[in-house]
Design a protein that fits this description.
mainly alpha; three-stranded antiparallel β-sheet
């Protein structure tokens, strides 16, 4: 466990470009979580953002308050790296019974990234969400149960981000199929599914379900609904299968994007039809795969900026980019006649070759230097101060410093970010115009961080 965590920690730290040399908050790190915690003695656990709770992120914002103001961005970054590494360590260890740990670790550390998912506390829920999915959907080694610890870990992860809500239909469908299997004794596959479901961590399942009820209640009671846009299914399905999936799996638009969903279908068929792995291994791969696809599909179906086909929304496909390697390994293992060691070496060699091909995107871009040290020093002066964060001049928040030296963040439009439902014009979809695609290829991120921030500001983003 220590060895795996050490590897994941240094791997995540390496991918978090500039986390120490360029101390700066990133978007919601400063504008929401730091600003709302500033001047508060108690953590803001029950303050929703975007319609749901971020308990673990709020805990970090509260735990960072004793540190000097000038250190805050680095403290946030270190916490983000530790939490991300711990979540990935759990995923590697949990799946070690069915997938070689080197495959699972490599699927994350050797995948390309183009945005802010690594090293920012705002985005740790992409890692904890994946850990929650594996905790709930994959039985532990030798059927061990987590007990109270498993319950509270699942509850904490479920109350950090919206992913427990994505998991609910997958878990209910799996449990329903397991129940039906008891009524259909002649189906050996369903019988295997029932045995698989019986081995799941029940305390963790209970914690996850409780978190789902809480998050759903918060979502219903907040000023927002499920999402800002709801598009016709034909549009988001086309965008998912033939644009976003190819772009994010291949770090660019391949020559024949329509073949990418076909490839995934063939891998699933090979996994299901092969005879060299058991049902437990199949389900331990297919269920997280279903979760990762659901996350990407839900984002495309409901988030307005996912209409733009670019490489900067890769956080929505973090899990899918990793799980596809598990799927490749599983499909080959189900039909591989040679030694398992040879298969692992072959998949790792392919993964390494793919990483070399995308070597310019293995680490996140360095953030825009907002001059946090000077800004932190200026906050000591009484008055109202505008603070800029590392996403560029378009992102900022205000802090009021009183004559006694106390500070607090002032309310901003970021704090009440809505998720209200409203329909989208069917003709506004697929914004693949200038700035997104050039000559049929996805525009790469070849700007410096400062230039990209200026571009965003000029466009009014």
């Amino acid at each position: 466990m220590v060895v795996v965590f050490t590897l994941m920690f240094f791997g995540v730290m390496w991918k978090s470009t500039g986390f120490w040399s360029v101390p700066t908050f990133w978007s919601e790190d400063g504008a929401v979580f730091f600003a709302q915690q500033l001047g508060q003695s108690m953590p803001r656990f029950f303050t929703p953002y975007s319609g749901y709770l971020h308990t673990l992120i709020r805990a970090v914002a509260w735990a960072a308050t004793p540190f000097p103001l000038a250190w805050q961005p680095q403290v946030y970054a270190v916490f983000a790296i530790i939490i991300s590494a711990a979540a990935l360590t759990f995923v590697v260890r949990r799946l070690a019974q069915v997938i070689p740990p080197v495959i699972v670790a490599g699927s994350f550390l050797l995948s390309w990234t183009n945005a802010e998912v690594y090293g920012y506390i705002t985005n740790v829920h992409w890692f904890t969400g994946m850990a929650l999915a594996v905790l709930v959907l994959v039985p532990s080694i030798e059927g061990a149960r987590g007990g109270r610890a498993g319950f509270f870990v699942a509850l904490l992860l479920g109350l950090t981000g919206p992913f427990c809500l994505v998991l609910v239909p997958i878990v209910l469908a799996m449990l329903a199929a397991a129940y039906i299997s008891s009524k259909v004794p002649w189906s050996s596959w369903l019988a295997s599914l029932r045995v698989y479901a019986q081995g799941l961590d029940r305390p963790a399942m209970a914690g996850f379900l409780l978190a789902s009820v809480i998050q759903m209640s918060v979502l219903a009671a907040s000023d927002g609904g499920a999402a800002p846009y709801v598009r016709p299914w034909q549009e988001w399905t086309d965008l998912l299968l033939f644009w976003q999936l190819p772009v994010h799996l291949f770090a660019g638009l391949p020559a024949f994007p329509a073949l990418v969903p076909l490839l995934l279908v063939l891998l699933v068929v090979a996994l299901l039809c092969g005879r060299r792995i058991d049902t437990r291994t199949r389900l331990a791969i297919l269920l997280p795969f279903a979760f990762a696809v659901a996350v990407g599909a839900l984002a495309i179906a409901t988030i307005s900026y996912m209409l733009t086909v670019n490489l900067e929304n890769d956080r929505y496909f973090l899990g899918l980019k990793a799980v596809v390697w598990w799927l490749i390994w599983g499909a080959l293992a189900a039909n591989w006649s040679r030694s398992p060691q040879a298969l692992t070496v072959s998949v790792m060699a392919t993964m390494l070759a793919w990483a070399v091909m995308n070597i310019d995107h293995l680490r996140r871009p360095s953030p825009w230097d907002a001059g946090w040290a000077a800004q932190a020093a200026s906050l000591k002066t009484p008055g109202i101060h505008r603070v800029f964060v590392g996403k560029g001049p378009g992102w900022s928040f205000e802090v009021q410093t009183l004559s006694d030296g106390s500070m607090h963040g002032l309310p901003s439009h970021y704090w009440s970010r809505t998720r209200k439902l409203h329909g989208a014009d069917p003709f506004d979809a697929l914004l693949r115009g200038p700035g997104d695609l050039e000559d049929g290829k996805v525009k790469g991120d070849d700007h410096t961080a400062d230039q990209r921030a200026k571009d965003d500001h000029d466009k009014g983003l």
